[in-house]
Amino acid sequence: MTAEAPAPDLLSKRRIAPRGWALVAVRLFALLLLLTLCIPAYYALAPITRHNPVPRLFLRTVGTICGLRIRKLGALPVPGSFFIANHVSWLDIPALAGATGTAFVAHDGLAGFGPLRWLCELNDTVFIARHQRATVSIQIEQIRAAMHETGALAVFPEGTTSGGVELLPFKSSLLSAIEGHDRHVAVQPVWLDYGPEAREIAWVGDEPGLDNALHILARWRPIPLTLHFLPPLTGEERTNRKTMAHGARRAIARAMGLDPD
Hints:
The protein is α/β, with parallel strands linked by helices. Helices cover about 40% and strands about 15% of the residues. The chain has helices at about 10-15, 20-45, 55-65, 90-100, 115-120, 135-150, 200, 210-215, 240-255; strands at about 70-75, 80-85, 105, 125-130, 155, 185-195, 225-230. It has a seven-stranded mixed β-sheet, with helices on both faces. Mean pLDDT is about 85; it is low at about 1-10.
């Protein structure tokens, strides 16, 4: 199943009214103010703490400023978890990081923009080159190092965003980092559930990222998001990377009410 582009009537709703632009301006100012406060705090705490709390606070507040209203359900996140989640929007990152303190595995395309790479690295993001198979072993070591440094890591194995009501195939290669002897690392599926708002929030199709961001920032209605922390994978599901990818996708699909196969 593949992600679907927003319907024409949805695209028409993305036109921003004047009062929406006013809200965009207020939120951008709030985000800039937040950044100017958090950067000095981050560097002040960096020499005296192993797990700097500022990135988690920053990302949680980013989500709040953008309108996220988060509810957590299910099994409590286990310390030292490797989270496997579906991917709907750029909001997934501040939502999951703000709720758990996790760092992320991200496509190296994000690293091409210097300021964005710098911000991502403050949260210990691991950048991977998906199309360079010769570097997979190096990427696995990067992921293991990040797990050691941050205590939690999250991956979106669909490889791209979907429409929020479907689930794309999961790529298993990055799960090699926790394959085999790393049984002490909890592998926990997470369903990011935007409910009936999913189609409107989702960043799919050919919509430019800036347009989607402005659409989100111009919303006056809150964005409800439920984080369903599903039971960690166990037994045969932990046999290898492919069984982990299959087990996580199956668990999320069942939670979404989809055919798990």
